[in-house]
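Bump. Still looking for Ketoreductase domain-containing protein structure tokens.
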Amino acid sequence: MDPTPAVAAPALFSLEGKNVLITGATRGIGAACALALADAGAHICLVRRPGAPEDPTTTTLTARGTSPTVVECDLADLDAVRTLFDRALAAVGGEIHVLVNCAGIQRRAPAVDFPEKDWDEVLDVNLKSVWLLSQAAGRHMVPLRRGKIINFCSLLTFQGGFTVPAYAAAKGALGQLTKALSNEWSKHNVQVNGICPGYIATDMNEKLLQDPERLRQISERIPAGRWGAPADFAGPVVFLASAASQYVCGELLVVDGGWMGR
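Sorry for the wait, here they are.
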């Protein structure tokens, strides 16, 4: 592994000249991460569903004068996912320095009634697509001896949750995949880490936010006294994408307002 650069601390967080491929960046946490990475100097390559209209992230980046590269892919279509990294590589016209796997879906139902179709969809999008993208990134980054992979895990990487068996299974496995890839690739100067969001006020948690009893139960248990916001991930993602985290390998960074501390 290369040593941490001997530069002034602020320069460690610069992403000037870096290309970042990020999934799930059209809204929520992913959108906030894409904007933060661009602010740090990176060129963003974001993934958009085929046929989808221009998203707010693209509009915002373009207005700032840093138009992103856009590659189309439905992450539930694993055949399309298998070609996604190479298509993104061709689109940016060079190296991809950072992969951020932020996309995810949720399905809720009691375990005794949980549909097999929902199980397969959640595992394909939240785990298998991440594996396929990460494997493709590793094949690109390991020979170059540089790169960063950031996987968005969850509190359910550690806990079981309620009525979300597929999501919990996928996120638990994703935490272990993050560590497994780090064990193999750290020696090749490729750092693989995860970010584990707590309860964040996004579309994915809309049902929880609309359930007064669950909202109260969850809110009372968060030491910070509030649910998280997408902006809370700007700093963590830039840290893990940059040279500032050069010796951080296989870690699962929990961003949860103190929930896991209880």
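The CA atoms of residues 142 and 188 lie 6 Å apart.

Edit: fixed formatting.
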